[in-house]
Structures
1.
Amino acid sequence: MMEPRPPLRKRVTRAITVLVAGIFMWVLIPDYIGVLVSGKIQSSAILNPEFVFVVGAVIIGLQVAEALTEGARPSIPIQSAVSLLIAYYLWAATNGGSLSFSSNGTQVGLWFEPLVLLVMLPSLWTAVRTPLSFLVMRKTTATRQTSSKLPTQLPSQLRSPGGV
Amino acid sequence: MWAIRGFSIALAVIIVLAFGTVFYSAYVDYRGISNDASNPAFHSVVRTMDGNSETVAVNLTVPNQGLYALQVSVACPEPDVAAGVSCQHASVTVPAGQTRTLEFRITVANLARFESSLSQQINGSVSIEIMPFASVSLNYDLGSLVEATTQA
């Protein structure tokens, strides 16, 4: 949704906050979890530090760009891209909801694909909702402007030679 | 605009409800099954010897106190064919709030051959699914059920 553009100072403050929070959320915590579960859980993307750092950096970069362009049109595709990337990150981190690990010599397999899809749904919906809200809002504004202009235009049309 | 907001709210409610009920069911089912597993009244092992062969019948009482149906299945993915080990795949679906019994059979056609094998293992697989959201499968050795008889 296109909200009034906040002042630059506010946007920069928000971008710095997003940057710091993002480093913890998308890089440091997943990397720490990856170190903790390495050797136990097989086939999860967070076991690969390259994935955590590269995808995490892209998410943070896009979130910072979104904060800086808040209220402007470029923020819409950026927000959609961030949402899609977060959904992909969740899917890859949980290996599509299928994990296996070994505990006391017993192989344990977990399958929770529907739950992962449920977790991904808000991100996927945000990716669709943002441009959809913008389009709906633009259409509503255009309709309002047209309807507010109509009474002033009508008398001139009536006065025209082709009128009554 | 209201439709978009309404859908967002509905989505949030559905997700919270789904997660809440699934985790509640998982917790209640785990507690019920672990309580019953430690209680001898809820499981029995009947061994039948016939010459050089043995049949082990395991009866498990599976309670489901959760909110979703529970499916429990036991199988031997790779039985020791040389020792004549065969397992009857057993599966039971327990509706919410009910209890069902699962009977699982292991047959060892050649006990002497089984005893002489190095591992004396029967790889078993137990799968428990909270339908249709999540499942956990455990692979472990069922050979101890047979071993106990041959040593006794």
2.
Amino acid sequence: MSQTLLSKWTRPALVGFLGLLLLSPFLLPYTVNAKEGVLTIGNAGEPQTLDPHRYNLRLEETLLNDLFLGLTTFNAAGEIVPGAAQSWQTSEDGLTWTFKLRDNLKWSDGQPLTAADFVYASQRLQDPATAASLAYFMYMVKNAPEVNRGELPVSALGVSAPDAQTFVIELSQPYPYLLERLLYPTAFPVPQHVIERHGDDWVKPANWVSNGAYTLADWQPQAFVAMQANPHFYEPVSIQNVRYLPVVNEQSAYNRYRNEELHVIGSFPVGELERVKTNYPNELHLSDLLSMMYLVFNTEKAPFNDSRVRQALSLAIDQDILTDKVLRSGNKPAYSFVPDLIADYQTTPLPHVGKDRAERLQQARELLDSAGYNNPNPLKITLRHVSGVEGKKVNLAITGMWRQIGVVANLQQAELRNHFADLRQGDFDVAWAGWVGENNAEHYLTLLQSDIGNVNYGRFADARFDDMIKTAQQLSSAIQRNQQLAAAEAYVVDAYAVVPLYTVSVRRLVSQKVSGWQNNLRDVHQIRYLSWSD
Amino acid sequence: MTRYILKRLLFALVTLFVIITVVFFLLRLAPGGPFDGERRLPPEIEANLKAAYNLDAPLLLQYGRFMVNLAQGDLGPSFTQKDFDVNALIRAGLPVSLMLGLGALVCALLLGLSIGIVAGLKPGGLLDTLLMAVSNLNIAVPTIVAAPLMVLLFSVTLSWFPGGGADTWWHFVLPALALGLPLSAEIARIMRGGIAETSLEPFVKTAKAKGLKSPRIVFLHLLPAASIPLLSFLGPAMAGLLTGSVVAEQIFDLPGIGRYYVQGALNRDYTLVMGVTIVYSFAILSFNLLVDVAYGLIDPRIRVAQT
């Protein structure tokens, strides 16, 4: 019975199915590649907001740099160049900065953009009602912390517009790196006339007005952010349409890049690096990022309050092995807490750098012994890190290096948010941490200041170091300030509060359809500097 | 029957309430908060943020406020997707998730029914062995493994399908297939058993003796009788599709609510996670309710026993 049931209708069905499968490439209803004429970029994730005053993530900076133009901005090489301001002057004491705006600046709706817009934006950033999470980026402005705490009205903030093209910032103490700080979206202008009309909904594509090279055309959450060239921008751009897609997963980014769905991706799995080097040599962009990955000791907790223990653990770590043998992802070994990529600054490497490894291990054992730890009584510690392949690999290797000096280390991993939440609460022995900072040493060294807050995870406190930093912060000349900071670093290096490990290397793929891409230390790439290759 | 349905409905509502309450407090127990980002927050700024999102109130009061807003259909603002409220996010994501779920169900039913019928008509035959082997493979290989392999083959190598996104219905083919495959295998097994068993029933022999054509016997006599066990399976299967869609949406970069769920949980976006939890719970409870009611309608014994 079943024989006849089967044969009569399955065979044609099977043949049909096979035929359809073979024909399917010719039946494709859509092209799978990126849309013609739309630069499609894989971003590291979904932006949480496009309000420059409420943003918090680097991946949001990427978008905001295309949508807005601050007083200063980056060029394609990542250097600071004039943005909305065409020139600026600093007073003798370094406390008053006067910016001259470009002629005929306009918002994307054609309204004129004046210095009053910068005053409004500065006040809005510090207004407690805005709840700007990065308001402290501009705390050097006179009265900013007081305004942000609600103790003074926003009108008390040290910003003013003597005329439509002049914007003046007064500082509470000298800050020679101000031009760099103005690069961040926290210092971008926002359209007062639109915000007052639409309230929080001003960021919706239908209401959107900005002053950057591009405006927001559409935003489908988790799907894409679409931008188009701003007709009122002060100079024309080559690429008219851009789409940023949130592609969290590196493998997915890599697959979609290879399928030509994306023109640019921010990262791909490190395991593919060798293959990419052979297959896409002209599309691979490996570049150092201004950053520091380091281990931090909980200096409030025994035995890590003993600098001999910290020194011993530091001596045993070989940064070269971590980057060249373990990670193999192009990361650069770091021997000083301030990255040696920073301009006009002389870093102080760890004292033992360059010494023979056997000698270092011997010294480490002696230090541990003097602190009371030896074979019968080994030092037992827990090393905390962020979960993920890279974190696991590096930290496992470090425990191996510590084993060579008789230290028994357990690994404990946690998801990023938990990890840093615990670090801020001081709930750790030794922990992996990372910092993507500015192009100045102060941004790194202040992490070791005793009154900086819980971002000094290890609660390191040294009165003399604090004084040295505070002295530096009174200096308005960048050269003198850098010298003083370098002295502070040279002093603090002997305390072994942290162990520098490596600086991150960014692995990008950029399609050959796009030209004008330049690697830079901040990994910022405004679309207006790019164009289609012919 | 009405009493039975009302009883199930009440039970579903109580379950939903318990889920919402438990998840609300569980979320607050997790370390870290929605405002922990890549960068540090000074205490005064954290205070501003907490005030802006009503997180400075006592927890019980927050719970009360949440429930009152929920009763009015307002899920609140998203803590991390600051430019959207949760209602808007779910409005944007739900159609994508529904499309994925529906696509997966269609794939699973099409594949599962045809494989099951073909295999069940001649149990123990070569085709049966082959098809069941494929089905076992489909059950054994989870979506998280099958999906990347499919992307590698169909998008990276062959470039037939996009590897992610949701711009057109073409984008849904691979994810729906990846999500539907394990389910299709289970449907195939159930159908195979049903067909094989039912083929031996006297009424099939009668139909055959009457000289009815084979397709007519299969579709009019065998299929309805063999489908009853399938019905009881579909309720939990839909729940499986929902949870599976979280994985598929991650792998295929689909902007559905499953992705919000994962990211919301990682970012401690309390309101977003609550919103998605409510949608998921509502969906699962509805399926279960529907299956319960369908049971009652089909099988009078259940109706009698439960009332």
